[in-house]
Design brief:
Helix content: 10-25%
Number of domains: 1
Strand order of the largest sheet: 1-2-3
């Protein structure tokens, strides 16, 4: 039996880039959040150790 590894499935469903302009990517597509408080909380949680 052969198993084929799909590299795409290894990508996290949510990617957060905090260096430079903050960027949210969900399942390969840019994610837009309209509320500043939601963005601030998400960026703070992403930067926490």
């Amino acid at each position: 039996m052969h198993h084929i590894c799909n590299l795409e499935s290894l990508e996290p469903p949510l990617s957060i880039a905090l260096l430079g302009p903050p960027l949210l990517v969900m399942h390969g597509a840019p994610l837009t959040l309209n509320r500043r408080q939601v963005k601030a909380l998400l960026y703070r949680l992403a930067a926490a150790p």
